[in-house]
Q: What sequence folds into this?
């Protein structure tokens, strides 16, 4: 995947996808998000910020962020995961391959220190296995500026073998449009304690548990 420093990208075809196929006409659903509201409240009354978006290139997200007077850098991390670890072998076991892990980190987080004022990570981290997960979070800590905010989602149903995956599109500061993109097997289950440990380098971690078993996490750098 190629990405320029303006956040645009050209993605090569995915080599492997653990997602179940979904109809191309899958209808989006809208939902309010306390985590999204907290994220935008943290950057309210500020201008000319740089926001990292893991949802991939989206006109809705680009339009909303730039209208606020900020810059957005987009990358579809789930696609990059498939490029790095799909194909032969087990998807999760492949994440222990140093060469493949290096490729993933290079494509996803090849930014200088303190490049961003916020990160919209969405639900991507739950598909990373340790130690790659911790290294990815450490890279996020590295590229975020002090006092910045990170938003991440984790499914809270510990019995689920597969969890739904979405394209996340911003409607307004409190509302998301979610378009289904299949299901994936999470690499591990996360509870509040494990998430606090995962983000222990950061200043604070705050949780919102939704009705649809989604744990929204706001992390302060």
A:
């Amino acid at each position: 995947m190629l990405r320029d420093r303006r956040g645009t990208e050209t993605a090569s075809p995915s080599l492997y996808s653990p997602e179940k196929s979904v109809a191309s006409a899958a209808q989006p659903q809208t939902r309010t998000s306390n985590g999204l509201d907290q994220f935008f409240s943290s950057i309210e009354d500020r201008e000319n910020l740089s926001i990292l978006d893991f949802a991939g290139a989206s006109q809705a997200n680009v339009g909303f962020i730039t209208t606020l007077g900020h810059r957005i850098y987009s990358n579809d991390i789930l696609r990059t995961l498939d490029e790095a670890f799909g194909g032969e072998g087990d998807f999760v076991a492949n994440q222990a391959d140093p060469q493949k892990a290096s490729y993933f980190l290079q494509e996803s987080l090849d930014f200088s220190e303190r490049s961003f004022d916020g990160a919209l990570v969405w639900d991507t981290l739950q598909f990373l296995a340790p130690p790659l997960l911790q290294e990815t979070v450490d890279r996020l800590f590295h590229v975020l500026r002090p006092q910045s905010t990170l938003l991440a989602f984790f499914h809270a149903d510990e019995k689920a073998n597969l969890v739904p995956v979405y394209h996340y599109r911003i409607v307004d500061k409190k509302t998301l449009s979610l378009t289904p993109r299949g299901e994936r097997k999470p690499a591990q289950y996360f509870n509040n304690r494990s998430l606090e440990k995962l983000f222990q380098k950061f200043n604070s971690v705050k949780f919102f548990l939704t009705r649809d078993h989604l744990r929204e996490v706001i992390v302060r750098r």
Q: What stands out?
A: Residues 31-220 form a domain with the Rossmann fold fold (CATH 3.40.50.150). The longest helix spans residues 98-109. The CA atoms of residues 26 and 180 lie 6 Å apart.
